């Protein structure tokens, strides 16, 4: 593949991360989804700097429950994307605040 831009690369990383933890049910043709167990694994391995309580099973289960819109007990790509948006939004705010404080101290 031709060289990617940073944004294209970031999207690929997010998609690859979903593929890494999701699986397809062997008995049906449903799209790939992440099980609760694998979701907890993903939180503690991949998001332990950005989210607190990633090792806390109860907190992880609450997050799964909040994200699991169709209540099938598994996280679809769309539901995973909601998590990414939920993380990105406060981070964007922190970055803007840091930029503001850098401007004020210059
Ligand atoms: Ca679901």
TrEMBL record:
InterPro entries: EF-hand-dom_pair, EF_Hand_1_Ca_BS, EF_hand_dom, S100/CaBP7/8-like_CS, S100_Ca-bd_sub. It comes from the Eukaryota. Gene3D superfamilies: EF-hand (1.10.238.10). GO terms for biological process: response to calcium ion. GO terms for molecular function: calcium ion binding; calcium-dependent protein binding; protein homodimerization activity. Keywords: Calcium, Metal-binding. This is Protein S100.
